[in-house]
Structures are given as C-alpha cells and as structure tokens.
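assembly run, all chains below
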Amino acid sequence: MAEPRVTDADLQRPPTLPVEGDLVSRRRFLGLVGASAALAATAACEAPPADTIVPYTRKPDDVIPGVANYYASTYQEGVVAYGVLVKAREGRPIHIDGNDEHPVFRGKTSIRTQAEILGLYDPERLREPLVSGRSAGWDAADARIVPALRAAADARKPVLLLTPAVISPTRAAVIAELQKVVPGLRHVAWEPALGAGDQSASCFDPAVSPAYRFERASVIAAFDADFLGAMGNAVAAIGGFAQHRRPAGAGDAMSRLYAIESGMSLTGSKSDVRIPLRPSGAAPVAFAVAGALHTRHGRALPAGFAAELLAPFTLDAVASRYRLDGRALDALVDDLAAASKRSLVLAGPSLPPEAHAAVALLNAMLGTEGFTVDAAFAVDSPSVATPADMTQLARDLDAGTYAAAIIWDTNPSYDASGGGAFDAALARVPFKVRLALRADETADRCDVVLPVNHWLESWNDFEPSRDLLSLQQPLIRPLYDTRQGEEILLGWVKALGGRVTSDYRAYLMMRWERAVYRKGTPASFQKFWMTAVHDGVLRRDAEARPPRTVRADRIVDAARRVARAADPSGMELLIAPDIRLWDGRYANIGWLQELPEPVTKVTWGNVLALSPADAGRRRLNDGDLVTVTVGARSVTLPVLVQPGQAEGTACTALGFGRAGGVAEGQGVNVFPLVAADGSPPFWRAAVQLTRAAGRRPLARSQLEFSLHDRDVVRLWSLDEYARNAGPVGDDQPLATLNPPQDWPEHKWGMAIDLSACVGCAGCQIACQSENNIPVVGPEQVARGRIMHWLRNDVYYVGAEDNPQVAHEPMLCQQCDDAPCEPVCPVAATVHSEDGLNEQMYNRCIGVRYCAANCPYMVRRFNFFDYTSTMTDPLDLAFNPEVTVRPRGVMEKCTFCVQRIRNGVQVARDEGRPVADGDITPACAAACPADAIVFGDLKDPNSRVSKLARSDRGFKVLRELGTRPAITYMAELKNPVGAAVERIDD
Amino acid sequence: MTDATLPAALRIAPLVEGDVSLGGLDDTVRTWSEKTPPRSWYIAITITSLVALGGFAAIGYMLYTGIGVLGNNLPVVWGFLIINFVFWVGIGHAGTLISVILYLFRQRWRNAISRIAEATTVFAFMCAMIFPAIHVGRPWLPYWLIPYPNQRGMWVNFRSPLIWDVFAVLTYFSVSLMFWYLGLIPDLATLRSTTKSRFKRVVFRLLSLGWVGNAWHWLQYEKAYLLLAGLTTVLALSVHSIVSMDFASSMVPGWHMTIFPPYFVVGAAFSGFAGVVLVFAFVRTAMHLEEYVTPRHMDLLNRMVLFLSCVMAYAYLMEGFTAWYSADPYVKYVFATYVFGGQWWAGWLTITLNCILPQLLWFPRLRRSVPIMVIVSAGVTLGMWMERYTIIVLSLKRDYLPSSWGGYLPTPVDWAILIGSVGFFLTMLLLFLRKLPVIAAWEVKPDIVYYQKQRTEAGHV
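ok done. output:
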C-alpha cells in the first residue's frame, strides 16, 4: 500500500497544534528580554524608542514567564526508545526526566538521556551545511547532492545509507521513499555498542528480543550481564529489580541475584552471590547448571536436546576447572529450580554466542518465557549490522562500485572495527554526504556535511513494542540553520521527483492518520493526535505473540562446540559500552565525561581493569600504562586494579578517545580491539599485556574504598537484619547543650534506601542538571575539586578478590546541629525554619571553614571561575531558578530548595496544605529505583517519616551529634541459605 | 655589701663584656643608622626583597586567577596559607615572651635582646596577617569579617573561631606594635639629638614625641611600659590559644583537642625563641654586638629553647595519649597516619626536629656554639612549620568518611608565597637593623654602669 502523501498545500494551513516552539521560540523570547533590558539600561539617558518594544502584551497561552512547561517526548539510543518529559523554561529545555505516562519508564530515564540537555546546547554543534569543508547554504549543499543521487539512480549504481538502528516506523517509511527514487540505495543500520546484537534471540523462534520483567523475578542469574548498568534498558531493569530489594521489615524475604562475571559490574556490586569467572567459562558453567537442573531436579530438556550433550558439564568439573565456590553453584541450581518461571537467567551482550545458547537453554528449562521473559509484544528485531557486517561493507565499498555514501548520525570512522580499513574503503566512494549533529571523525572525510536537528528540535515516532508507540516532539525551534535528517531525505526525494512533502511533521501526521488512527473512533484525528503528542506515548491494542519456542538445534551445536573447546590461552578481555559515553556519542557532554564511573569512580577516561592478583604479578599499579595486544591490533590503556575482577581477565569500556571538543585526549579508543571477523566482537582471548612506558594518573572522584571498620554504611545479610533490626537510634537522643529546635511548619527530610539503590548515578546527573553544577575537567578532578553536590560512595567489604560492595549516595545531610553553621565567620550558612541548612552564595567569602568542619565532606568550593568562561550556548542549559555560583564561594546540596519553595508556594496559592509527594528533589525524581524519598518529617504520616522509623534505618555518623535530616536504610544482601521472596503471578 | 664579697656562685654574672662604656653603646646603636651599610647588607636586602617580590607576584597571580592555583582541594581545604599563618603567628611570640614576660620577671638579660625580639614579633605578624586576608575565596571581601554597622545589614557570626581570630590577631599586633614603639621612644630621642641629617631630625623628632628624658617623663614612661607589658602578656597567651581554637573547636579528627590552646602557646613560644636565636646568631657578629649580646645571652636563650622543647615533647605525648585514650576510631586513625601514614615523614620530622634535636642543648658547650645553635633553631623553625603541616593537612586528609579521603600537593604558587613571606620578613628586619636602634640603649645602660662598678671594685680600672 502506498504511503500517505502530504502536499505542499497541506502545509499552507496554520499549525493545528500549540507547538510551543512555533509560538514563542527561545530566540524570540530572548530577543524580547534583551530588548527590555536594553530599554531599561538606556531609559535614563535617552528617549525610549518610538515603537516595536512590546514586552509580552500578546502572551502565548501556554508560557507564563517564571513557570516551567513540561513536554513529553522520546529519545532513541540504540534500540531503546526512552519516553521522556522535558522541562522547559521560557522556551528553553533545561531538564529531562522520564515520562510518567510511559508504562515502561514510569517517570524515570537514563543518565545519558538526562545529559542530552548538554547535547542540545553543545557549542561544537554544526551550525550550517559544509561543502568541501567550507560553510555553504542548504541550496548549495543540495546542488551537490541531488545531481549526485540522480546520476547514481540513473546509472543504477549502489548508494550506501548508513544510519543508526531504525526503530521509528515513520523514519523507516522515509528511507523507503528514498529507496523508491534511488533504487540502488542500500540501507545499513549500524550500532557499534550492540556488537553482535541480541544473540539470545537467535536461539528462539521467532528471533525477537524480549523484554525482561525484573519485577517478576525472584532469582536472577546474570552471566556477565550488567543489566543494572550499560546493558539494554537499565532504567526499567533497575525499577523492576529494586521492587524486590526492599523488605518492609525484618523477617521479610527478598529476591536473590547471582552475578557470574569477570569484571566488577554495577550488577555484580549489587549481587547477593558473586562468582568471579572468566568469560570463556560462562557457557560451560551455564551448561553445568542446566545439567544439574536436569539430573537433580528433573527439569525437562527441550525436545531435540539430548541429555548426554550435558554429560561433559558437571558442577564439580566446572567448579574445579574454574576454581569456583561449589556451594554457590549448588545454591544457584536449587534456587533456580525452586523459583522456576520466577527466575531469570541473562547473558551479557559481550559473551560469545555459546554462552547465550546455554542461557537460552536454562530459560527454556525453567519456563521463564511468558513470565520473566516477555516477548508477547516484541517488535521484529530491527536489522543492525554486526562488526563483521561492517567489515564486509568495507570490502564492498572498496570494490569501488558505490556511487555515493550517505552517513547519518552513526560515526563509522571512529567506531567501525578497524576504523582504518573502513576509512580507506570510504575514500573509494566518490561522493560522501554526512548528516550529523557535530563535526566528527566521519564528517572530516565527507564531501558535504549537513547539520541535523537535535532530537529536542525534532519530530518522530518510535515503536518500542507492538502495543506501544512513543512520540518525539520538538521543545525548541532549531538553534541553528539545521534540518531534521528525515526532512533532508524527504527533500531529496522531492527533488528527485517523489511526490512527498519535505515537512516531516506533516508527513508524520499524515502517516499516523493513515496507519495509526482508527477511523470511526469517537475522537477526531486532531484530538487523537494532540492527546498522543501530549502523552508522548500511545498504547495500542495488539495481538500477543504466541510464546517463542527454543531452537534446540542451535543449543545442540553450541553444547558440542563448548564441549570440544579447550580453555583459551592467556588473558581474556571483555569489552563493553561505557555506562556514560556508551558508544562514544556522548563524548562531548561534559556532565557524562565527568560523571564518575559508578564502580571504579574514574572520570574522564577508560581504564583496563585487572584483578589484584594479575596486577600484583605484573607489578602494575593504578595508572600504569599497558599495551593490550589482540592479534595484530593493540591499544595502550592505563591500568586500574579492580577488586573482584576475575583472575586472568581484563575489562575495558568503549566510547573514549574521541576527537575534538571536550573529548579530545580523554581516554583511549578501544574499538580497534573489537573483533570484526565474525568471532564474538567484544570477547577477546589470548590477549597480550605488555607494560608501556609512563603512567597516566587517573582522575578519580574517590580514592579510598575500604570502610576501615567505620560504621558509616551498613551492609547486612538478612540474618544480620533480623538480629540488628531496630529504629534509627533517635529514641536515645545524644546529649546536647543546644536548645531543642522547633519547626513551625515543615521539617524537610529524606530517606535513602541503600538496598534499593544500585549506585547507577542517575541522581548525580539529575542534580547537576537541576542545580547548574559546573564541570571542572580532569585536572581539577584529579586535584580533588569535583563539584558534584551529590556523590555516590562505594565501599568494598571483605576479601580483595571478591569483595561485597556497598553503595551510598552522599549529599548534604541538612543536619539539625550542622557543624558548618557555627564556624562560618560571616554567617553565610544558616538554618532555615523548615530545617534546611542554607548556603547564601552572595554572603560567602570563601574561608572554607565550613567544608573543613563538615564530617560528610559534601560541601563544594569554586576554586576558579567555572561558569563565566562557559562557551555559548551552554549557558542556555542553566536552570534559571538556581543561582550560578561565582568564583570563591562554597556551595552544596540544598534539597532542591527551589522546588521546595515552589511547592509550598503552589500549595499556598491553592489554599491547601502541602501534600506528601508535592515536592520532589531532582535526585529523588530521577532515581529509577525510587530509593530516595523526600518529604516533611513533621507529618508523622508522610512516606519519609515512616521510612525514617524503619527498622533498618541509620544516620551516618550519628555519634557526632550532627542530627542529620537524612535517614539511610541498611543495604541488604540475601546470601545463600536465607529465604527467597515468593512472587505472585 | 658588694658583689666582690659574695661567693662566686651567688655573683650575678655580668650582662655585658669587654671594654664597654655608656658612650660606646650610644655610638654602637647610633652609628648603624648614620653610616653607609656594608656591601653584605645591600646584597642581603637585594636577595630578600626580590624573594619577597616573587611572593607578592605569586599572590597577585592568585588573587587574579582564584585560589585554585594553590594545592588546596576537598578535603584539604586549608593548606600552605593557613600553615604559614599559624607559623608566623608562632614566630611572632618571640618578642613578647622575651621582652614582656622576662621584663615582668625582672630578667635583666632580656634588655639587650628585647628590641630585636620585639621587631621580630612585629614583622612576623605583618607576615602572618597577609595570609587570612588572601586565603579567602573572594579576597576582595575579607572586611566583612569586621563587625561594624554597615549598609548590608549583616553582622559577623561571633560563634565562629575565625572571628575570634580576627580580633586576637589584630589586637595582639597593635599592642605589640605599641609596645615596641614605646620602647623605642627614648632611643629615638637620642637619635633625634645626635643625627646630623635635617630630614632624620624631623622624622625622629616626630617619632620621639617630645621626649626629653626628665624625671617626670621617666616616671610616666616606666608606668606605661609596665602596664603595657602586663597587657601584652595576657594577649601573648590568648592569641595563640585563640588561633588554636580555629582547630580545637572544630570537629575534624586531629583538630578537636582540648590540649590545643596551651600546646599552641608553648609551640609558639618555642618557635619564637628559636627564631630569635637564629636572628641573633647572625646579627650579633654582623653588627658587632658581641659585647652587649654575650655568649651568656645565647646560652640563656638556648636554655629556653631546650626547656620549651621538653614541654613540646610532653605535649606531643599527651596529645597522642589523649588520642589513644579517647578510643575514638577517627582520632586514633588520624594520629596513626601522622607517624605511620603515607606522609609519615611529616610527623617524624616534627618530632625529630622539635623534640630530639634540641636535646643537644643540654651540653653547655653546645649551647654557646654558634653553628650548633643555628642548626638547632633552624631545625626547630622548620619542625614547627612541619607540625602545623601535620596538624592541618594530615588531619584534613583523613576525616570521617573514607570516601572523601584525599591528598595534598602544594603548587609552585604555594611555595612562592611561603618563601616570599620569609623574604618579606627578612627585608623588614634588614631595614629595621639599618635604620632604628637595634639595642634598647636606655635599658642596657644600667647594666653597663653595674658592670663598670664591678670592674672597678675588682681592681680593674
């Protein structure tokens, strides 16, 4: 069926939607503000201008100066479409949270999505088209491109279109339009961070990627699967996982997480049982677990999979082969058998396909399909090239038959494995067009570079699952002379004779009217569309797929291969996308570069993580440079000695070593180590490590990870919980000479559930975005001057080779008897009557005594002028409700006082008391685990008051008598032996 | 009864030596401000003033750029500048303790050295007062630390020890300056009466406040001197107690110690005495003052150094004991890092230089040996700087939450400011030695009269 056509006549209509950007753009608003300021400044000396200064007399309906507007939108990263809610002030997007209408995201979003605010205001964005490296207009660019495409179409020569994964039905339609007029168009989708794609899917029929329902899982076994970190949709995973990590009281059970992994991932750090294992051991161990499930618990094997295939794999054999804790493996088997469909076994994307096959077997035996593994509404997996496909593509390009290449967004010169080979092949293509947000490695090699809109300036739709559509709408008119990629393509289609509109919004609406809107429904399409745009998501009725069936043949092959395989020699290297920079696309976002990696606390770079034993044997320390050689490729990385790293393994992260902007020189590009020959791309064996000359000191935000037996964080097993459970200890108040405090109206407080918190750092980026926290750069971080108001402390407890890990978000405790207050000579930090420890920037002279006297060391000091040197337009990202701090003043967490005051004001205006939940600080709003709860401690029925009385509550450094307003709840571990939570159907 | 009839043990040893006379003393004191100084003086002041200028240039750079150019960080929010402040306040105790307390105790041997010691105080405080002003984040605003009715409608926070500090230091400096000046008046009058330069005569006339040295003047003068000495004594004890409260009243482990006030006062006197020994070791010979500042003076000063070193050792032991006895894990840990931590050398340097090295002074011969006293007092000066480094930096580095532990690495700017402050101190001292009477002639003269009388009685003419 033909796609709907939108004619230019359609576009003559005025816009039917109150598109915020159309009515008052940021430019128009700033123009007005600037003009009024200029008027005010000159009023005294000159007569006012005769006309044209009209300060908002015709105020747009939906913009009230000083009041934020929120718009739902969607952000695509890889194959995940994040439903977001963007906060805009006077037309400027300034903060991103999850869309609370979205059934998957429930108001939460990833750290990377939140940081996209800086992506919008990136000073390095392209501002106009470039032709042969020189500024040119769109017409000049089209004058180069359209004839080239026409010639290619006429000559029937192939044209390459390289894009990220296409999960947008309308974008796919646009590409199809282009395909019609350029018949030789070959579309390749490339997502370097996805490696070989979802390998577990290929063991099932149909080969679609399911959603994992962590909220239904009582036993989780993760084989190198960092589902709380950089793998898949971590936001949903954290939310589901955390539900079963917060017992209401002593005696309650909780879920149990087994992490069988090589590096210390965020998931491993939250696990109850962590089994360090080299990646090559994942498949044998998983098969051995399957064998034990079959022999001990009588679990049926899938049809076509003979029991003798598992004979080579016994628990004892793998335990001795990999020196594992046999008791833990036994417990894993028993727990999985007991939990059955309430269990969930995962293999990480970096593992070889055999491990995925073994894990598919486990899931099939446990019957998780349809319960914790949910493919009912899974979309057909979008086609995404693997590194091997890219090698083949390079070979095709090298043949010299391609007439042109269009490279949209994705950056193959940086990330296609063996970038050199791809570049050389690309050079053989006579005409190359780049559609990109900023000049990058690939753009440097293209003839025409077209600047595209940021997604916050764009329209689009996405289909995350068959029962859901997610819409993207622009928050702001394009900052520069840019166009949306789809619009550019439609323009070419039109120029090449296709009958389409080049207005992508109109195109999108028309397609929706035809393909999504069901005629005969009571609401008109306009109303339907407006509701969908408003909500950002549209739930649809869709027919559920029948459960997938496991493809025994694939698992049989895998089991045979694994049984034959010998242990790989030498070190094994596991490569994974970085939780902050992912595949490197966020490299120019300072917030993410400076965000400490949640486990290692390294900022501004990647490292090679080695186990203490391996590092000790090689006499390597943190920051020593080593050259990692795999086959003919090698890169040089600084070492990080990582407690818990499995011996004989090394881990590193993708995304660093980008060129240009703030990313220049930060970290090392490890894409050259990714296998591009069809073998597992992110798992490398026989890795050689040689010491390289020199050191690269790591810029880490935390240097000491041992608790030194201090009671500053509580990590309890369920047994210890039962023994130690009790109220926070405030029933026996510490002696004080201070008069009792009286809070006339409110007493703000917070509760942080360390058991739910996974340490993902979502709160940190939210805080940075909300509170205008500056980025200081790696040198300043290394000198201990990082500015984060909220940090996530990590402590290792126990043996270095496999410690337990405690995460503890640390922020201003808003102490009732705050030690910072009496020592300030100028009274710049004082107590408010609602229990806040307030910092007055313009009163502060910067003696830093408060910071010295803060036992939590949460105060941050502006050693330099970090903000006024900021490049335009980064200042547009500032939250206007929060003062931008000058050089020489102290700052710290305020509990988002601007949100508190706003909440109180709104309640007062509405003539009602402040309700529990009215006020949410940015960190609490962003926390995907809902581990942070804020509220009024004066109200005994508020959520925070109840949590403050929790039987696992404690106050950090309570014995100092600071009387913090934050109650932490002990982190709980559910070790082997304790009960596992039973989850109802 | 004359001294000659006393047993040798009861005789008061003479405070001057050699062929001294009242006129000779006047000449010695006066000629330094009259004649062209030697080449060595010019070389010395060239070097010291260049060093001082370097320090001020570093300060200027810091004021322009931000205090980020220093090594300070989080958690080590206070670094070299505060160490230097405490250090110079400590050096500044020399003058007072020697001059005032010994005056009140009628220790006449103080007379020959009091002037230079008081000058040391004044200059050391000038150095010290640079630091609190420039170490703040917004160095254009430290006047907000002074409570005065203002249009900002803000008042200082009297609970903050830093405010007490402002008062203590400013008061002590102004009283020390007054005391020094008061002591100078009779000698300035002598200079006024004898100088041949018209200009100097005018200046000294103004400075000597019409002093003619009649009996009524002397009567008032001695009263004022005694009263001011009493006042200064109290301040000398209070100022470093209050400086110590910056630390003691905080809750940083390693700072929060009740022993700090007396311990800081002793430490200050200790470094002050060492500083004065160091100054005299050079000035005595360079300015030919051996007859007035005799080996016995040096011996007595060194005895004070030795005594105070023993008190310091006791203080360190008590501090360590308190840390252990407190059973407070945070304090115990910090104290362990002083001597066993990554910067163990700072703690050991402090102990070695302040407690062990001065034990050499038990030997009378060594007490009078100039090289030994230079080594010991230079060691003590460095050791007391290290003590403040240990207390301030090592404590801040290891506070309550291990996650916030950090390091500290001073930058070239830190060093330039520290060395520059030494240069500034020495420049001021050199100018003083050149232009003002370095010995309180009016106080030493009775000693000369007494000495001459002794010699006459002993049969020497």
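DSSP finds 30 helices and 41 strands in chain A.

The radius of gyration of chain A is 29 Å.

not gonna interpret more than that til we talk
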